[in-house]
Write a sequence for this structure.
């Protein structure tokens, strides 16, 4: 099996030069011609670094863990892409786990807490994990980066700009001419509160009275419950901002079941984008969030903490939330639809 010593001999360079190329180090001075020659020999010999030996030398495992709630949630797809791309660029492996398995005595938790087995942990919202478990995690040397937390005890948190997303979604309906707009979905925790704050700011800027948030929870059933609550209240909005795209699936279905034509009678827009939005009928307007950038920044934060380098925590506000217009929104009806006054 090829070794760095053999590569160095064939290239006529020092072993340290070969190591620099293998590890992607840029501070070692060498010409582009020399670097290309080393890379060519590495390819010819089929050299594969011994990751275990490298980890021992660096006292690093080369593995990070990512913990979210319901890994099947399509909202995480772009965040996972950002995490995996950034980890791959550093030669790191990723262990993915569901928060429901994060309990004392679990094998997954034991793996995370294993001596030197994990270099860093990305947790989707600290509130999803038991306080005792979080204390165990923070007691280990591996840095814990909270995404969508905003209240991490050590300040190591990153979050998308949920307030800006709520504002973009509401402003889209306002620009279409809607004035009677509701906010549906979510719970009384920070992301939902921030999205609702964006909604209230947009409404207030337009000189309109915001409606109380209908915090029906998450998922399609919660979206349906939110729409049912609006019907029961007697309120008849022409537009609804839904806290997330999965809840909006339930809101849309409940509206259609009630005989509401979307968007002729009612416009719907959701925060977060996912492939399912295009599959609905009508396709659902959404606000796309920088989830890939959030994931990549979390990996970069782990790398910076491990290296003792400064890093930025707080909001990931670039790129800004982007409106994805689709057929679920339109101008409000000139007169209330017959079903709307009859229900």
């Amino acid at each position: 099996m090829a070794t760095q010593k053999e590569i160095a001999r064939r290239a006529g360079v020092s072993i340290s030069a070969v190591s620099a190329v293998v590890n992607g180090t840029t501070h070692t001075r060498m010409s582009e011609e020399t670097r290309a020659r080393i890379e060519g020999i590495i390819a010819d010999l089929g050299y594969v670094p011994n990751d275990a030996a490298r980890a021992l030398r660096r006292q690093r495992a080369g593995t990070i863990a990512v913990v979210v709630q319901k890994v099947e949630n399509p909202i995480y797809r772009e965040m996972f892409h950002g995490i995996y791309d950034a980890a791959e660029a550093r030669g790191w492996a990723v262990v993915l786990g569901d928060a429901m398995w994060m309990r004392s005595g679990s094998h997954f938790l034991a793996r995370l807490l294993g001596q030197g087995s994990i270099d860093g942990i990305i947790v989707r919202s600290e509130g999803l994990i038991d306080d005792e478990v979080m204390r165990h995690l923070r007691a280990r040397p591996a840095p814990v980066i909270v995404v969508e937390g905003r209240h991490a005890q050590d300040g190591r948190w990153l979050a998308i700009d949920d307030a800006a997303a709520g504002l973009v979604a509401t402003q889209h309906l306002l620009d279409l001419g809607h004035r009677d707009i509701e906010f549906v979905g979510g719970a009384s925790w920070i992301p939902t509160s921030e999205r609702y704050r964006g909604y209230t700011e947009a409404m207030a800027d337009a000189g309109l009275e915001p409606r109380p948030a209908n915090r029906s929870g998450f998922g399609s059933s919660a979206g349906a419950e939110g729409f049912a609550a609006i019907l029961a209240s007697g309120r008849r909005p022409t537009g609804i901002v839904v806290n997330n795209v999965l809840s909006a699936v339930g809101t849309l279905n409940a509206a259609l079941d009630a005989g509401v034509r979307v968007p002729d009678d009612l416009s719907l827009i959701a925060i977060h984008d996912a492939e399912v939005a295009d599959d609905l009928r009508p396709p659902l307007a959404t606000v796309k969030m920088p989830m890939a950038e959030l994931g990549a920044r979390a990996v970069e934060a782990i790398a910076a903490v491990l290296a003792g380098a400064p890093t930025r925590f707080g909001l990931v506000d670039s790129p800004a939330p982007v409106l994805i217009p689709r057929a679920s929104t339109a101008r409000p009806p000139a007169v209330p639809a017959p079903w709307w006054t009859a229900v």
Remarks:
- The two ends are 77 Å apart (CA to CA).
- The chain has a mean pLDDT of 84.
- Residues 4-49 form a domain with the 434 Repressor (Amino-terminal Domain) fold (CATH 1.10.260).
